[in-house]
Structure formats: C-alpha cells, structure tokens
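Side project, low priority. Logging it here so it doesn't get lost.
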Amino acid sequence: MTSVKNICILTYSLGRGGAEKVAAIQSQMLNGIGYNVFMVSVLNDIQYKYSGKLLNLGIFKDEKDGFLPRIQRLRTINKLLSFNKKAKTIFMVYNSLLHEYFPQNKYVANFLYKKQPLICISTGVQKKQNSIFNF
C-alpha cells in the first residue's frame, strides 16, 4: 500500500502575477496525480483557481497588521512547515522584487532562510539575492 504524499505551496497571493498563477496551476497538477495539496497565501488576494486546502493568512493580515500579528503569522507558517520533520522545504524566488520574499531586516532573513534550499528563477535574481542577503 502506498502512502499519499503531502505538499505545501506557499505563495504571496493567488490573484496577481505569473508566479502566483503558476502556483495555482501546480496545485491542480499535483492534486491530479494524487498529492494532498496545501496552499498558503500571504495576502488575501485569491482569484486563480487552485486545488487542495487553503490557509489564507491574508485574512489575518487584513484584520490586524503590525509587528505582533506578523510574528503570529510567521509562527503559523513555521508550525505548518515543521509538522513533518522529514519534509523538505524548498523556497522559490520568481522575480527580483526580493522584499516580497524576504524580511527587510537582513539578520532576520539570514536566520530564516540561510540553511534552506533556495531556487531563483534566473541567475540575475540569484546574484541580486546573494549580494543583498549572502545566502
């Protein structure tokens, strides 16, 4: 008996831009081949059709946005990602707007992402990310 694999797709939103549309299409494709798909959207902008379960952190952001609510949303994502210790997390950067992917504070960004696998969509984006954050 084979076990069903889970996958979590974390995206900035599901409502604008090509990367967000790719995330929605990926969820449909992976669901279609038997994966349990969990979508996490940072913003409450859901327009593209997706498959799986959705955790819309943007709803909480719309209600309260400040330092402590951001920490709470970060803890929610951390709990979700650390639920399965064997799971691998791969972060993908789709464009050069790095402020949409990483905290502005370089120390916080290094703490969160330095040891994580990271895929950049182009060498230009990778060079920019390396020059700013050095990971």
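Brief comment: The chain has a mean pLDDT of 83.
Revisit when time allows.
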